């Protein structure tokens, strides 16, 4: 008789959530479909020649070491370089003990969930929020307290009310998870005022903030706003950063900044998770950054993504019917569209794919899965002409439904 | 007032175990010390020129794709190649749906722990066992049921007794974790007869076996024994493999073979953990293997590690005092030494480091931390002359204590 593995699964595994994005991506492989699905950088902009040069240099100089195990904390000279980079952004008072290299920022989310979340613990998240963040916390059986967003980011008055209610109920949330810049999926950015308020609330209620900032450097309009880490310091802020959007997701490299007591737990958690981040990739990243090539590449990305974003906003204005609305991000990869409540974007997706255009259904990003009238549109991976064409197709479909 | 982060840590985080190996490694950085500590392959054998050639080819042919996100399951053509490789070892009845690329085999252990272990669940482990395995299961708050080893591997009569006792107590263990070939730390190999018995017990008691086999291909003496996966099939065996010992640990690549229902959970767990394995490394691995270079490299490793192992055994025979004993592995990286019970190897370590030789204290490998009279000696990372010198130093120290 075949073993019934389900009898052996943990309660944790039963609470796992699959990623709708990855499921949808499998449906839209055809080149005829304009896909606004992924959250991927535009690989056509990758400076492959420079990657080859930096890789060759690293292998020639450090080949044996770079192919060997690295330390769990990560390559020291890369951490020094990243620490300096963050100092330039106004992050003070961090030392090498406060920074480690992670297997991209998804691992940072996974470690935060493991280190802080008991089954049933409350985690405050933005509503909507990043699918991978929801997955990481759900996999450790978190209970979500979602706080709605508006154009200025997480709504602090609502957060404060919720924190008061939770305190009355003797519930201490473990973490506040936020993506302050060009939020995924909503594309909005938290204002300076709200950032300050969030840090004040963290102090008042004794909470740690997880600041997930994959897109901050990809600002193509407006003025940068200091990060929560720069404003609030490491005592109350755990910062997650990644190379995935500012350079090459294939490397699986990110970094985590945290206070030392938290970092010690993250390091042991990382040992159990995968021992160390890819080592050859760390040498490559070091060479790529130290030559100034990362900054040059990010400048190209900003310029090209602005064109893409503008193409998308223009097309939305031209082709989308009355009753729809969207965010207009100053950076990042995503536009977030609201459609009339009579339309269920999850139901409409099959029709969209038939019409040769695809998006991510909004429900994927709602921790409580309680909204059906949004869609996330990625512009980074599509060229401007196809953006216009895809939005045209989607607009026609929406018009047929309104 | 500074936030007290300890108030926020999960119970899971409080059960985290640090790695004594990584702690000891930090003490033995001096080149004067002969270090038998690490579990690292000999990087001086790495064919860096071939890695450069394969890397350049991969970047030239697939640069953009290889630097982009990959699928959670891993690069398809690499999975096909590994599937064929396993078929050659006698593994039947697996398809692409049964194999994924992991961020080395440590991630396989982490996922197995997450998918199966509720806090307090029993996991059967070898006594002693791999530190990283103990860490992975401990981090999900497993309770360990350790089964002693002898020269023929896990002792099946004791396992059967324990399974009967557990059954009487209405406890169903979740997993049996074993390293059948050249076990870490003990260096012993499970006999064919015991492998068959283990599979029989898995059937009888409805248990899954986690077969961790990083060293199987590094057999330098004797005849290969079929894997548990080949003998028992995927229904009862989850197999973890890695490139870390047969090639380059810096890449952080391994693979997992499992039945489909289990694999579905592993895939969602991997999404939450790190989305996908390093993608550029997967292209490199594919090119390196498909050129036949992996097999050529493993042949070199077998030949050179045999020399190292022989140097270690000879030196042990020459320099170690009466009352000590050791295993004589037919492959892998480790010799396991027993000293008289009057000696505590954890206490002796400081003296050894003063005498310019280092090892891993045996207690690190005991799930219940109940043995002080063993030490693990790595021979793969040290050259034969230094092995002789280091064993001489350690032998002198031991003689002074007996």
From TrEMBL, chains A, B:
Keyword Transferase (UniProt): yes
UniProt keyword annotations, A-Z: Aminotransferase, Pyridoxal phosphate, Transferase
Gene3D superfamilies named among the record's database cross-references: Aspartate Aminotransferase, domain 1, Type I PLP-dependent aspartate aminotransferase-like (Major domain)
Keyword presence, Transferase: yes
Pfam families: Aminotran_1_2 (PF00155)
Family annotation (CDD domains): AAT_like
GO terms under biological process: alpha-amino acid metabolic process
GO molecular function, one term: pyridoxal phosphate binding
Cofactor(s) needed: pyridoxal 5'-phosphate
Domain Aminotransferase class I/classII large positions: 44-394
Matches recorded under PANTHER family: AMINOTRANSFERASE, KYNURENINE_ALPHA-AMINOADIPATE AMINOTRANSFERASE, MITOCHONDRIAL
Family indicated by similarity: Belongs to the class-I pyridoxal-phosphate-dependent aminotransferase family.
Subunit annotation: Homodimer.
Protein name, as recorded: PLP-dependent aminotransferase family protein
Organism this protein belongs to: Candidatus Cryosericum odellii
